[in-house]
Write a structure and sequence with these properties.
With 282 residues, the chain is of the alpha+beta class. The chain folds into 2 domains: 145 residues, no CATH class; 105 residues, Tetratricopeptide repeat domain (Serine Threonine Protein Phosphatase 5, Tetratricopeptide repeat, Alpha Horseshoe). Helices cover 36% and strands 32% of the residues. The chain is built from 7 helices and 10 strands. Helix 3 packs across helix 5, helix 4 runs antiparallel to helix 5 and helix 6 packs antiparallel against helix 7.
C-alpha cells in the first residue's frame, strides 16, 4: 500500500513538473475568412497593440519595409485569380508587406509566405504585385492593428488596414461575373428549374445586364412556382420596374406587400410600400 501511495505521489509531482504557465500573447493571432462574390479570401496575421507607443514614423519607420503586423508574415489567400489596382494575382497565398509613408503606402504581395517577419534576403522575382495606396488620418486612435475586408460587392471588396490614427483601403476585384455567366449558360442549356430561372433573373437584374432576359426568366420562375413567396414577388416587381413596366410592377409589389404583412416581415412591408409610392409618382 505504501508503495502504491508513493508511486501516485511521484506521478503527481512529475505531471506538476511538466505543467506550463499560459499567458496572453502580446500580439495575438487572428484569422479572417470572407466570401467575396464566389471567391474565398482568408487573412492570417498577428495583432500588435499601441500600448502607449507612437507607431507610424517611430516604432514603424516611414520609408522602411514592414511585415504589416507582428511575428510571422501576414498572409492573404485567394481561391481565384483576382486583380489589385489593375494587376493580376493568380489564386494562392501571398505575404503582405508594406512600406508606410506619411501620405501614401506601398503595398506588396510577395509569393514566399514562409518568413518570420520580413525576408532575410529580398527577392524581386517573388513580388507578384506592388501598388501605391493613399493613407487617410483617423480622428481617434485604434489601439490594436486591424485588417478587415469591407465594401463587399459581387465583383470585389476592399482590404482595410487600420492602426493608430491611420487608415488605408486596398481595393481588389474577383471574377464573379465570369463564373456566374458560365454557370448560367451551362444550366440554361440543360433543364433549368424554377430556382435556376429565379437566380439567373435576379443576377441579371442586379448586375444591370439584359433586363428583358431577366424579365423572361423571372416570369418563367414564377410560372413554375405553385405559390410564389413575397420575397420572390419583390424581385419580380423590381425587374418589371427596371424594364419600364411600372403598372405591372406596382400590382406585383402589392401582392408582395400582402404576403409580407401576413408573414410579419416589417422590412419587406416598408420596401414594398416605398417602391409602390415611388412608382405611382412616376
Amino acid at each position: 500500500m505504501k508503495k502504491l501511495v508513493s508511486s501516485i505521489l511521484l506521478l503527481t509531482i512529475s505531471f506538476m513538473g511538466y505543467s506550463q504557465i499560459e499567458t496572453p500573447q502580446p500580439s495575438p493571432f487572428a484569422k479572417l475568412e470572407q466570401k467575396v462574390g464566389l471567391t474565398d479570401v482568408t487573412l492570417e496575421y498577428s495583432r500588435p497593440s499601441m500600448r502607449g507607443r507612437t507607431i507610424f514614423g517611430d516604432l514603424v519607420p516611414y520609408g522602411t519595409l514592414w511585415r504589416t503586423g507582428a511575428n510571422a508574415n501576414t498572409k492573404i489567400t485567394f481561391s481565384d485569380d483576382v486583380r489589385v489596382d489593375g494587376q493580376s494575382l493568380v489564386a494562392g497565398s501571398y505575404a503582405l508587406y508594406t512600406i508606410p509613408n506619411e501620405e501614401s503606402w506601398d503595398v506588396i504581395f510577395y509569393s514566399n509566405t514562409e518568413n518570420w517577419g520580413t525576408p532575410q534576403v529580398w527577392d524581386d522575382t517573388k513580388v507578384a504585385a506592388k501598388i501605391t495606396v493613399k493613407s487617410y488620418p483617423l480622428p481617434f486612435d485604434v489601439q490594436t492593428f486591424t485588417l478587415d475586408i469591407s465594401n463587399l460587392t459581387n465583383g470585389g471588396a476592399t482590404l482595410d488596414l487600420i492602426w493608430e490614427k491611420t487608415y488605408l483601403g486596398i481595393p481588389f476585384t474577383v471574377p464573379t461575373d465570369n463564373k456566374v455567366l458560365a454557370s448560367i449558360n451551362d444550366v440554361m442549356s440543360g433543364t433549368p428549374t424554377a430556382k435556376d430561372y429565379y437566380a439567373a433573373a435576379v443576377y441579371y437584374s442586379e448586375e444591370n445586364k439584359n433586363i428583358e432576359r431577366a424579365k423572361e426568366w423571372i416570369d418563367k420562375a414564377m410560372s413554375m412556382t405553385e405559390k410564389p413567396a413575397y420575397w420572390q414577388l419583390r424581385q419580380q416587381s423590381l425587374i418589371y420596374a427596371k424594364s419600364g413596366n411600372k403598372m405591372e410592377a406596382i400590382e406585383i409589389a402589392k401582392k408582395s406587400l400582402e404576403g409580407a404583412k401576413e408573414a410579419g416581415n416589417a422590412d419587406y412591408v416598408k420596401m414594398n410600400m416605398d417602391s409602390i409610392e415611388e412608382w405611382e409618382g412616376m
